[in-house]
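Objective 1b: paired records.
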Amino acid sequence: MAMDGYKGFLGLLVSALLVGFLSVIFTLIWVLHYREGLGWDGTALEFNWHPVLMVTGFVFIQGIAIIVYRLPWTWKCSKLLMKSIHAGLHTVAAILVIISLVSVFDFHNALSIPNMYSLHSWVGLTVVILYILQLVLGVFIFLLPWAPLSLRALVMPMHVYSGLLIFGTVIAAVLTGVTEKLLFALNSSGYSKFPPEGVFTNTLGLLIVVYGALIFWIVTRPQWQRPKEPNSVLLQPNGSSREGPEGLAVNFGNVDTSDSKLNSEAAAKKRNVTVDEAGQRSTM
C-alpha cells in the first residue's frame, strides 16, 4: 500500500528516532558523568532515576506510541494488533513514569525535602494522572470490544486532542524539571557562567524540543494517515455484525464511517429486492 511522500516520511521518522535516542543517551551521560550515577538508596543517586525514566518513557516511548499507526509497513497488519502495540507502548511508558515518581518521593522523604511545592511538580503530577486516565479509558473504550460505536465516535476527537495535549505538556514539564535541577545543582558554581554541565543539559533540552516537534509534524500530516478499512466488520456472538473498534492511535481522519455506508447500501438493496418480489407476486 503506497504512501504519499514516502521518502519525506521516512526521513522525518529516522530523524525523530535519532533525536529521541540521543535524548535518552544525553540523559544517561548527564546523570552518570555529571550527577555521580544511579542507585536506589534514598540519596541523590536514586533521584537520578527520575530524569532517566521520564525522558525514556514519557518522552521517547510515548512519541513512538503516538506515531505507530503512521508506519506504512504496518498497514497490512490487523487493526487489533496495532491497537495492542499502541496500548502496550503506552503501558510501558506509564510503568517507567510511576517508578520515576517513586524515586523522587523516596529521595525527598529520606532527606526531609518538601514535596509538591514547585510548578514543575504540579504540572508533572497533573500530566501523569491525565496520562494514566487517558490510557485506561482508551483501553476500555477502543481496545476492548465493549463500548458502542456512538460512544467511540463521541470520544475519539477528545482522545486525539488530549493525547497531543498530554505529550506537549510532558515536554514542558521535562524542560522545567531540567532547569529546576540545574538551578539547584549549579548554585555554587554558577549556572549563569556557562558551566559544561549547564551547556550539555541545555543541549539535552533542545533535543527534546526537536523530538517533540518532529513527532507533532509526523502525526498531523493527513497524507501519512493509516488508510481506512471499509471491510473491517466483526461478527457478534448473536450472529449480528458491527464495525470493528477504532484504533487508540492519534488519527486525524475522524471515525471511519465506511462500514456504516456499506451497511446502508446493503439495506437499501434489500428493500428494493423485497419491493420487486412483492410486485411480481401481485402481478401473478
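Objective 1b, second protein:
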Amino acid sequence: MSPAGKWQPLSLVFLLGMGMAAGDSSCPSGCSCRYLEVNCTGRQLQEFPTAIPLDTRQLILAANNVSYLPAVELSFLADLVYLDCQKNLLGDDLDFTFIGVVKLVYLDLSFNNLTQVTFSTFSQLLSLVVLKISDNPNLVAIEKDAFANNTWLRHLDVSRTGLTFLDASTVQDLPNLRFLGLSDNLWHCNCSFLDFITWMTESSVHFPDADNITCYTPEALRALKMPAAEVQLDSSCQTHLHKQDYIFLCFIGFCIFFAGTVVAWLAGICAVIYQIHSSKQEEEEEEEEKDAVT
C-alpha cells in the first residue's frame, strides 16, 4: 500500500473528528435540532433548556413557561444571532441578561411580563437590528437612554403595552430606525408628550397600524390620532394671556417704572446734598487756613 493510501483513512477520521468538534451533536430534551438551530416551541418548558449546542445561532423558545433567562448559560452561546422568547413569563429581571450574546441581531420578547426597560437591559447588544417587546401589558416605563447603544436598531415594536409616555430622544437618536410599532398603547397626550408627537409627524420612520396610535388620556383627546392631537396640543400648550393678565402686567410694569423713578430721584437728592456738604467743608477749611496765616 502506498503512503497516500495508508494515510487516507486516517485523514478521513481526522476530518470527521474535526466536524464533530465543530458541531455539538447534543440537543435539549423535547426540542428539535438541526444545523445551528434549536427549536423548543410549545414544549411547556418551565426553565431555560440545558444541553444546547454551543455553536447554536438560532434559538426558539416560543410558547413556553420560562420566567427567567440565565445570563451565564446564555453567555455560552457566543455565536447566537437569533433568539425568540415570545409567549413566555419573562419578567423585569432582564438587566445584564444578554451580556454574553453580543452578536444577537434578532430578539423577540413579545407576549411576556416585562415591566420596564432600562439602559442595562439591552446595552450590550451592539448588533441588534430587530427588537420586539410588544404585547407586554405591564410594560409601563422605557428609560430615556434605553436604546442608546443599539444604533443598528432598525425594527422596534412596543405596541400593546402599558406605556403612557415615551421621550422623543429615546427613538429619534437611532440613525437606522425604519419601523416603529406604537399602536394600542395608553398614550397620555399632554404638553410633555408634544415633542414626541411632533417627531412622529415629521419623521420618515414607518408606523404600522397608524390608525390605532391614538391618545388614551386626557378625556378631551381620547381616541384622537396623533396628527390631530398635535394640532390640539400646539394650541393648548402655548401661553395664552387673558385681559386680567395684561392689566396685571401693566400694573407691575408701572410699579417697576415708578420705583425706578423714585430711586433715581432720591439718588439725585443725595448727590446734591453730598455736593453741598462737600463745598461747605472746603470753604470752612479755606477760612481756617487764612486765619492761621494772619
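Residues 32-186 form a domain with the Leucine-rich repeat, LRR (right-handed beta-alpha superhelix) fold (CATH 3.80.10.10). The chain has seven helices and twelve strands.
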